[in-house]
Design goal:
Length: about 140
């Protein structure tokens, strides 16, 4: 079921969201100081391209640096990417098949706004290690 959901996701908005993350990551590379923002953007972009079957969990040992980078991220990229998710979710609700995808899109917003101190793992690994998903798609 996960590959089918991922395929539908990619066809009906996931690819465009992925491209948005890649472009924002390239823009974040312009000032050298924000290269960590670009790396996080590309990491989350890979998750946004194929989200079902993977979850976002808190990274063990993430500290004050993650909080500081989340603040920088929110103003440089997070708010703009979250708006992209909202618009895509709104468009997806036009069809019945798009409603679950729109809900998944809305669940990605907390990760989009504050990605530092988090990591993407498979659903099986999260269960095995006892991680709790953080506002992410978990099917």
């Amino acid at each position: 079921m996960r590959p089918l959901l991922n395929l539908i996701w990619v066809l009906f908005g996931g690819f465009w969201l992925f491209l948005e993350y890649m472009v924002v990551g390239l823009i974040a590379c312009i000032p050298i100081v924000t290269i960590p923002v670009a790396v996080a953007c590309w990491r989350i972009g890979g998750y946004v391209l194929w989200p079902f079957g993977r979850v976002v969990v808190h990274k063990p040992g993430a500290g004050a640096g993650s909080v500081l980078m989340n603040i920088v991220w929110f103003f440089i990229a997070g708010i703009w990417l979250a708006i992209g998710h909202l618009v895509t979710a709104l468009v997806m609700t036009v069809t019945i098949i798009g409603i679950p995808l729109a809900l998944a899109n809305l669940k990605l917003i907390p990760v989009t706004c504050f990605p530092f101190g988090k990591m993407v793992v498979s659903v099986e690994e999260a269960r095995w290690r006892g991680y709790t998903p953080v506002g992410a798609v978990s099917v």
